[in-house]
Amino acid sequence: MNFKITKIEIIPLQIELNEPFIISIGPMTHARITAVKVHINNGLFGTGECCPYRTIHTESQEGSVESGQHLAKALIGKDVTQIMRINKIMQQLIPEHASIKAAIDMAVYDLNAKIVGQPLYRYLHGDRDKRIYTDMTISLMDLESMVEKSIENKKKGFPVLKIKLGDPDSANDVDRVTAIRQAVGDGYPLCLDANQGWDYQGAVNALTAMASLDISHCEAPIFSGKHDELKAIREISPIPIMGDESVFSPEDAHQMIHKGCIDQVNIKLGKSSGIYQAMKLASVAESAGVECQVGCFSETRLGISALVHYSMAWDHIIHHDLDSPLMQSEDPILGGLTYHDDWSVSVSEEPGIGASYDQNFLDKWDKIEIT
Ligand SMILES: [Mg+2]
After folding, report:
1. Mean pLDDT of 92-105
2. Cα 278 to middle of ligand 1, angstroms
3. What homologous superfamily is domain 5-118+357-370 in, according to CATH?
4. Mean pLDDT of 51-55
5. Annotated catalytic, 164?
């Protein structure tokens, strides 16, 4: 039986954040998301989304829409169950623009799991009983504000805080983390993300100065292209180094792990071009004994639901940064993951991702239809 793609809708939209989200490359006030709906000839549709960060993806929201149309034209008429073929077509047409390929791939996986009537995690051979808790991210601000936010989020019960750093003067970041550790107390899990904001010496100084602060890992201390420097930092650092901006593809993971640049990998569907490549990436890390995190850009609960289904398929994904929907002023998603009081998350047993956009919300935005 053939399940032909008959129509692809591309809908660029915006959701205001509760407060600006600030990382070392600047503040963000809105999540600029490109939603994708893929329809097939039996009346089913699948939904995906992406949230391109220009500084990380070299892909703007406008770029994702333009590339999406190009990809959609090539996919009309193709059998949606041919996931490898679909991914090959997308990769050959547009080697860059991982975000929009991820959105289409997510919709394709949603459809494939719906076709067999299974929740996505089961389609991916995942473990229904895997316990997953989200962290909460603290924006890069002045020391007092970051301490205040850390105390507030510890009180809310988040089991781990991810502290955004990357101050050009890394000594300021050491002061921030020292003050946060003092405020939240010993034993409370903290991890760091410098978003490539330090230089080599700044990273060495900061990481060694924070040796006694009981930090689980630090993402992206320096610019992603500087592999030799990152390797040298990792050899000195008392804190494990997690690759994020430096690891998009399975090949990146292989290279960074085997060069000795990183201890852990942060997997994001929006970097790997979707679930198909993320499955390979997780396998590369697992075979090297490298533990992983899954993380987000500024997706809604739809994209994060897909990410949770994906994580359920892998034991060595032990860190979860699933907080982007919690920062949004509006939740346009029906179904999908639930955040529980202890910040564990669960997904439904509905077929596919189990989440879709409220059509009333989508109708507010201009959409492009490819048939
Ligand atoms: Mg990061």
Report:
1. 96
2. 16
3. Enolase-like, N-terminal domain (3.30.390.10)
4. 89
5. yes
Separation of CA 261 and ligand 1 centre (Å): 16
Asked whether residue 66 carries a pLDDT value surpassing 80, the answer given is yes
Q: CA–CA distance from 213 to each of 145, 171, 226, 264 (Å)? A: 19, 14, 26, 19
Q: For a pLDDT cut of 70, what percent of the chain falls above it? A: 100
Q: Annotated catalytic, 367?
A: no
- Of the candidates 244, 299, 321, 350, the residue annotated as catalytic is 244
- 90 CA from centroid of ligand 1 (Å): 25
* CATH code reported for the domain at 122-352: 3.20.20.120
C-alpha 323/C-alpha 180 separation (Å) is: 20
Residue of 59, 164, 321, 323 with catalytic role: 164
Mean pLDDT of 124-129: 98
Query: Can you tell me the mean pLDDT for 78-86?
Result: 98
* Residue 219 a catalytic site member: yes
Instruction: Find the farthest-apart pair of alpha carbons in the chain and give their distance in angstroms, rounded.
Output: 62
268 is catalytic: yes
Ligand 1 centroid to 368 CA: how many Å?
31
Residue 25 scores a pLDDT above 90: no
Distance 219 CA to ligand 1 centre (A): 5
Instruction: Write down the pLDDT at residue 76.
Output: 98
Tokens of 138: 């603290």
Count how many Cα atoms sit within 13 Å of the Cα of residue 137 in the half-sphere of its side chain: 26
Say how many Å lie between the CA of residue 227 and the centre of ligand 1. 17
Provide CB contacts within 8 A for 360, sequence distance 6+: none
Candidates 49, 59, 135, 193; catalytic one: 193
- Our answer to whether residue 342 is catalytic in this structure is no
pTM above 0.85, yes or no: yes
Residue 1 has pLDDT above 80, yes or no: no
User: Is-contact 347 337, C-beta < 8 A?
Assistant: yes
Using 50, 70 and 90 to split pLDDT, how confident is the model at 244?
A: very high
**Residue 220: half-sphere exposure toward Cβ, Cα within 13 Å:** 25
The DSSP-derived string for 284-323 is: HHHHTT--EEE--SS--HHHHHHHHHHHTT-TTEEEE---
Cα separation, 139 vs 28, whole angstroms: 10
Domain limits, the chain: 5-118+357-370, 122-352
